[in-house]
């Protein structure tokens, strides 16, 4: 069965129509941690803790706790920011 990566199949269309959200706060947090660890490494993922999760209506907004220096330059530590769709877990924004 071939699945088009950019098109939802009938099962997801029905779930969306019923307003069923598949991604909990804890699941979004786990997704964020996995992605940050894959991209920036486990040590940088740990440095971002505690991650703060906010309810953004249709998305979970997750932000790292790293504090940027006022005179920061590219490459200096910065907080990650990610938004994950509650409906299906799509990462709709990611800044690091």
TrEMBL record:
Superkingdom, natural source: Bacteria
Name recorded for this polypeptide: NTF2 fold immunity protein of polymorphic toxin system component
Classification lineage: Bacteria, Pseudomonadati, Pseudomonadota, Alphaproteobacteria, Hyphomicrobiales
């Amino acid at each position: 069965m071939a699945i088009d990566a950019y098109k939802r199949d009938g099962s997801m269309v029905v779930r969306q129509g019923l307003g069923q959200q598949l991604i909990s706060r804890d699941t979004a947090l786990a997704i964020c941690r996995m992605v940050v660890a894959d991209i920036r490494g486990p040590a940088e993922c740990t440095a971002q803790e505690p991650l703060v999760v906010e309810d953004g209506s249709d998305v979970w907004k997750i932000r790292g706790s790293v504090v940027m220096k006022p005179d920061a330059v590219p490459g200096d530590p910065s907080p990650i920011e990610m938004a994950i769709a509650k409906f299906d877990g799509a990462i709709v924004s990611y800044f690091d």
